[in-house]
Design goal:
By secondary structure, the protein is an alpha/beta fold. The chain contains twelve helices and 13 strands. The protein has two domains: 228 residues, Type I PLP-dependent aspartate aminotransferase-like (Major domain) (Aspartate Aminotransferase, domain 2, 3-Layer(aba) Sandwich), CATH 3.40.640; 118 residues, Aspartate Aminotransferase, domain 1. Helix 2 packs antiparallel against helix 8, helix 4 packs parallel to helix 5 and helix 4 crosses helix 7. The relative contact order is 0.17. Bound molecules: pyridoxal-5'-phosphate (PLP). The site of pyridoxal-5'-phosphate has 15 residues, from helix 4 and helix 5.
């Protein structure tokens, strides 16, 4: 029996391969590879898809987060609130500016717990960074109200939530900046590194564009110390093809998730839930189990791979030991790190493969 992997990017590629290959050849033959028409077109199309006024491409998702923080004036001496259970890039986007991340526990949907944000606000707090983790939006009406009340900027990490919405509005459009990653395995994936920042604010967009290109708007005239983080023409052209199919791709993920939700039935396994008003695009299908490591080993023996998103919460990573946050200080975050398990979920997973995953999970005792 063929091993079921946690992701199969070859399957997604084969879906639109002719269109993708044509676009790649067009760019290769054009003689123009950085900051050209392909990027302009993708930026325009992605902004329109999200319902945002502006989009600027970046080299990757981490840079999108970092550049947004910089564009919004976040830096040394500032604090930014972020959920404890996230991919470490969210936190690095904050700390790379010199600002200090302040962690908040997640709710039962794995998103930042809106009830626990205000207790973490200090006179140094400059912004809240929301992560729409696993593909589901956080409780955005409550969070936007908190940010407004306290005069805080709102940054959304949308690296896992392309096309996810909350009460009819797209992720990335609730706050000052929406940050996307198009890493190959994301719901909208490139064929290398890529990212973007969307915003409705002209000045924020101007600053991101300036900072992504050595802090210059006019070539060789540099206003600020920026970085080099550009989305190249080849990736932009390939992303634009996939963007034109994203509704189909999202529907497929949802249909696969629906099947898991309907057919996985085991009292030892906690299935993901969707918040009222939130739309889930299932970047990951994350279950929870008290005996998580044993379950993962059991599945592996049956040729089913799984992955943990994420085994070490940022506050307990060596990278952030300098913050001095002790084990036990974020019990819900730490409990999730010990019990979550992502099962195979990707474009092109077959019915038979899903069947095998479901049967194995239901037979686990
Ligand atoms: C993937 C991811 C990022 C980083 O994106 P890169 O393009 O890999 O830099 C940031 N935040 C979250 C939540 C992610 O999943």
């Amino acid at each position: 029996m063929e091993r079921i992997m946690t992701n199969r990017l070859d399957r997604a590629y084969s879906m639109y391969h002719a269109e993708l290959e044509n676009a790649a050849l067009r760019v290769l033959r054009s003689g123009w590879y950085i900051m050209g028409r392909e990027l302009e077109k993708f930026e325009k199309d992605f902004a329109a898809y999200c319902g945002a006024s502006y989009c600027s491409g970046t080299g990757n998702g981490l840079d999108a987060l970092y550049l947004s923080c910089r564009a919004l004036g976040i830096g040394e001496g500032d604090e930014v609130i972020v959920q404890g259970n996230t991919f470490i890039a969210s936190v690095m986007g904050i700390s790379m500016t010199g600002a200090t991340p302040v962690f908040v526990e997640p709710d039962e949907y794995y998103q930042i717990d809106a009830d626990r944000i205000e207790e973490k606000i200090s006179d140094k707090t400059k912004a809240v960074m929301v992560v729409h983790l696993y593909g589901q939006t956080a409780c955005m009406d409550r969070i936007t109200a908190i940010c407004e009340k306290h005069g805080l900027k709102l940054i959304e990490d949308c690296a896992q939530s392309h096309g996810a919405g909350y009460k009819g509005k797209m992720s990335g459009t609730f706050g000052n900046a929406g940050c996307f990653s198009f890493y190959p395995s994301k719901n909208l994936g490139a064929f290398g590194d890529a990212g973007a920042v969307i915003t409705n604010d002209k000045e924020t967009d101007r600053r991101v564009r300036m900072l992504r290109n050595y802090g210059s708007e006019k070539r060789y005239y540099n206003e600020e110390v920026g970085i080099n983080s550009r989305l190249d023409e080849l990736q932009a052209a390939l992303l634009d093809i996939r963007l034109s199919h994203i509704r189909t791709l999202t529907m497929e993920r949802k249909a696969k998730a629906e099947r898991y939700l309907k057919e996985i039935d085991n009292p030892k396994i906690i299935l993901p839930k969707t918040r009222e008003g939130a739309e889930h695009v299932y970047h990951q299908f994350v279950i929870r189990c008290e005996s998580r490591d044993e379950l993962a080993a059991y599945l592996s023996e049956r040729d089913i791979d799984t992955i943990i998103h994420y085994p070490v919460p940022p506050h307990l990573s060596k990278a952030y030991a300098y913050l001095g946050i002790k084990k036990g200080s974020l019990p819900i975050t730490e409990k999730y790190a010990d019990t979550v398990l992502s099962i195979p979920m990707y474009i092109g997973i077959t019915e038979e493969e899903q069947e095998r995953v479901i049967e194995a999970l239901n037979a686990y005792v």
